[in-house]
Amino acid sequence: MAEAHQAVAFQFTVTPEGIDLRLSHQALSEIYLSGVRSWKKRLTRLKNSVITGVYPASPSSWLFVVIAILATMYTRSDPSMGLIAKIQEHLPVSESMSTQCQAVVSAVLFSTMLWLLLIFTMRLCLKQLLSYHRWMFEQHAKMSTTTKIWVALVRIFSGRKPLLYSYQGSLPNLPVPTIKDTVKRYLESVRPLMDDTGYERMTKLAAEFESSVGNRLQWYLKLKSLWAANYVSDWWEEYVYLRGRGPIMVNSNYYGMDFLYVTPTPIQSARAGNSIHAFFLYRRKLNREEIKPWLLRSAVPCCSYQFERMFDTCRIPGTLTDTVQHWQDSDYIVVYHRGRYFRLKVYQAARLLSPREIEFQIQRILDDPSPPSKGEANLGALTAGDRIPWAKARTKYFSSGVNKRSLDCIEKAAFFVSLDDDEQGMMGDDPAASLDRYAKSLLHGKCYDRWFDKSFTVIYYKNGKNGINAEHSWADAPVLAHLWEYTLATDSFQLGYNAEGHCKGNVDSSLPRPQKLNWEIPPEVQISQSLAVAQAIADDIDFHVFSFRDFGKGKVKKCRVSPDAFIQMALQMARKTFCLTYEASMTRLFREGRTETVRSCSNESSAFVRALEADVCRRLFHSASEKHQLLYRCAMTGAGIDRHLFCLYVVSKYLGLESPFLKEVLSEPWRLSTSQTPIQQVELFDMVNYPEYISCGGGFGPVADDGYGVSYSIVGENMINFHISCKHSCPETKKFISLLLIFKCSTTVGHSFSPTLFE
């Protein structure tokens, strides 16, 4: 209870002599320093808001405009063409102000208005420039003159030293495609999946939709696009993620892995100390907007709004729909270990604890012998099961008293940490099987030792390995991957460890111990039912993770083929039977953009898979790859298929209109769901001198019961990592062993899927 006493700023007792007041100087000092830290953050946010608000200009440019206007006035010329005199006439000033002073004030007001008009004009010009997308359809080495001029203009209007959110006001809105174009692209995408009879029926449904309710739905969608920043993103978040009433574990959440071949330290608490410190260093950069905005071709900015809810965020269950709640900066994290939850403060006297101090605190939790409270051990299973039972339990049993205080502590924490007693990673006599177990552990764990509602949970294993599990509604995988890359690099290359494997630095042993959260959980809370639902899902998931190193991006690009298109063609060839294939593409070229679907199974890819002769195969492969690249670029530039049809379907439901075409389109299962996780911060890693220090990427569960989930990351020039998931319960699904053989045997089999075949 020593920590509780230290937290009380003053105590008093009433005696016959009067009131005896005793102040705690340590507590008062803590309060004062916390207030100073809070005000510093507010001032930083205010400063960044001003800088971002006037971008691409700078606050100092206002002074330049004012001086220029005043200088021209003293040369007896009027750059305002009489406006300064008009302002002076209507200036509400006292009679004591001289005429010259009034003229100066009027000039400053005119200069400010002129400055704001210039900012608006520059933003408008930049927004129009960023609406040009022809550059994406041109080869990088064969850029047209128009595109070269466009690039120069973008750089001129982009300003200098942008902050993370500087471009937000200049990004164009996501355009609404025409009904005709979307329907045409849709019919083309499903042609290889249907026989003649089925395709003819779908063509008739599409024509009926286009000539009847389609235009009415389109009108409402265009109206929304004029009003909202993005006509897709809010509905996508609500209806695809938050309104789902099934478990989010496996079905929505995804994971990221540690380094594949090395473990920086075998000490669990030390690994946690370094990386938790790195997480908060990243949050500090995020709050100060010091993270550089992502630029394509070093010139075209991408939307950064998804970074806003990275920390201090939690998904809150509801009976009809969940919500995403975001708080201001928390100074603590919540740590789970052996059925207990601990509140660990990472700031002491407004100072971020050093890695060695965090290691010391984590070790205290590992050494704590206290047992879990009744019902506490499996409490996290509520976040892994169905959403409605969790929402009802939260309202009934966690809305007051000690349970509410402890639950608030978890939900408002910066992020969640799980200390796992298992050892994971690529190890033992069967490294392939150990990688599969590692993936399953990161995706679902024991179903109760993660808090799946938190924006992300970091898992630290007994042997020093770590990993991350993320909730999907607040952001997409590349945003979290940016954080994960920074953390891994900072942990190993910036902070490091001493010879014994501990974090560097000294420890302040007077740090208050982590506070164990208390619970009073009645037996009526149906934790066991949620755990049973989650456990059934976890047991049904099959995973296969492997790193392919026979060839990689370098060899593929020599064949003048996109590495992503090459992999997608390999997946189609491995699948053999054609199915609706989903590849995630980002739409962050637009404000508040998230993702669009690339339908990878096309007429061209199916023709390639059917081909047998080498010469024909080579020609069809290049055709299929070029088609895939075209589809990908169309998706990135707002000319996709599925988000437009999804929003039309939402509008139809609001209006109470039935569309057989939209109903059938939205009910089609994605039996092959794929996603690439690119490495965004290559400069943080030295792949030449330290090639083993690279993450294996991450993965997700299958979207359909009879389908596959395939995640891949292209690392350097000679490595491709795959994460493949499916379900044991479906007899028709097997692991992508054929894919593995296609790659593994590419150098020995005559007609195999090797880049040499297409040179």
TrEMBL record:
Choline/carnitine acyltransferase domain location is 174-737
Q: Which Pfam families does the record cross-reference, listed alphabetically?
A: Carn_acyltransf, CPT_N
Tell me the Gene Ontology biological-process terms attached to this UniProt entry.
carnitine metabolic process; fatty acid beta-oxidation; long-chain fatty acid transport
Q: Which UniProt keywords apply?
A: Acyltransferase, Fatty acid metabolism, Lipid metabolism, Membrane, Mitochondrion, Transferase, Transmembrane, Transmembrane helix, Transport
Q: Which residues form the Carnitine O-palmitoyltransferase N-terminal domain?
A: 1-47
Q: Which GO terms describe its molecular function?
A: carnitine O-palmitoyltransferase activity
Topology in the lipid bilayer is annotated as: Multi-pass membrane protein
Instruction: Write down the superkingdom of origin.
Output: Eukaryota
Please name the PROSITE patterns in this protein's record: ACYLTRANSF_C_1, ACYLTRANSF_C_2
The active site of this protein is located at H472
Quote the EC number: 2.3.1.21
Which family is annotated?
Answer: Belongs to the carnitine/choline acetyltransferase family.
Name of protein: carnitine O-palmitoyltransferase
Gene behind the chain: LOC114481179
